[in-house]
């Protein structure tokens, strides 16, 4: 598995932290009620890649359209090993649930491509050795949420013909996250994401993405539950 020493042979150590079963993940927020902190735990250990790793090379990547951009980043990435299995877990934090569908589900595939493109510069890294997982952490749907604040499948079924005609697979992903708290994202869900010219080792193919609702700041998220 790729190690902190491997990463800091090429990249500045400022972008990484050792992950030993516990990490406080923080995001600067202007609104005091916004989601700004979670406590991440796991029985495994490895490396945390800070969001600045992608943010500081943002300008070299292109913007695709108004909804999708190779400049998007996630809020941090954990690379660790547990029980002889290696994981890359992409974390994205959102205060409002509406941003989960609008932004988060697009940020994770793009971040996956970019993280792998940077890690592939190291001999110790092979994407084939890792299971990739996405975790979106947010407050649960509120009364102001567009469709349903109780994850009610009946409401979705009642509205499905209208919503599906308007939003296609985007709504299907949203429904799966609300009802089942997980969805298998696939490349076909992002037809505007150009990958034809990308190396096969960094392409986004598919990834299980989980939604983890929290009710307040500083809640504990156990990575071992999301595999």
Structure notes:
- By secondary structure, the protein is α/β, with parallel strands linked by helices.
- The chain has helices spanning 4-10, 52-55, 98-119, 153-167, 169-180, and strands at residues 16-26, 37-49, 76-82, 85-94, 130-138, 182-186, 206-213, 219-222.
- Strands 1, 2, 3, 4, 5, 6, 7 and 8 form an eight-stranded mixed β-sheet that branches.
- Helix 4 (153-167) packs antiparallel against helix 5.
- It is globular.
- The two termini are 18 Å apart.
Describe the secondary structure blueprint for this structure.
Blueprint: H1 4-10, E1 16-26, E2 37-49, H2 52-55, E3 76-82, E4 85-94, H3 98-119, E5 130-138, H4 153-167, H5 169-180, E6 182-186, E7 206-213, E8 219-222
Parallel strand pairs: 2-8, 4-5, 5-7
Antiparallel strand pairs: 1-2, 2-3, 3-4, 6-7
Concise overview:
The chain has 227 residues and is an alpha/beta fold.
- Multimeric status of the protein: single chain
The largest sheet is: 8 strands, mixed
Coarse structural class: alpha/beta
Question: How many extended strands?
Answer: 8
- The parts where pLDDT drops under 50 for at least 5 residues are 148-166
Question: What are the key terms here?
Answer:
227 residues, eight-stranded mixed β-sheet, 5 helices, 8 strands
């Amino acid at each position: 598995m790729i190690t902190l020493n491997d990463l800091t042979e090429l990249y500045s150590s400022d972008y990484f932290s050792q992950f030993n079963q516990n990490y406080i993940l923080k995001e600067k927020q202007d609104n005091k009620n916004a989601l700004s902190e979670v406590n991440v735990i796991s029985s495994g250990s490895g490396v945390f890649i800070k969001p600045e790793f992608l943010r500081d090379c943002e300008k070299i990547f292109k913007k695709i359209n108004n909804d999708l951009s190779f400049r998007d980043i996630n809020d941090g990435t954990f690379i660790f090993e547990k029980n002889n299995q290696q994981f890359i877990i992409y974390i994205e934090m959102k205060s409002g649930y509406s941003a989960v569908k609008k932004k988060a589900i697009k940020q994770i595939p793009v971040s996956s491509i970019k993280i792998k493109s940077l890690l592939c510069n190291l001999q110790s890294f092979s994407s084939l050795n890792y299971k990739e997982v996405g975790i979106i952490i947010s407050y649960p749907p509120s009364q102001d949420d567009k469709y349903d604040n109780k994850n009610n499948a009946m409401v979705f079924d009642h509205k499905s013909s209208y919503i599906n005609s308007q939003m296609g697979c985007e709504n299907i992903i949203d429904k799966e996250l609300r009802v089942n708290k997980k969805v298998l994202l696939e490349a076909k869900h992002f037809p505007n994401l150009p990958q034809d010219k990308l190396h096969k080792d960094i392409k986004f193919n598919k990834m299980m993405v989980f939604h983890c609702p929290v009710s307040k700041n500083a809640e504990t998220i156990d990575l071992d539950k999301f595999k």
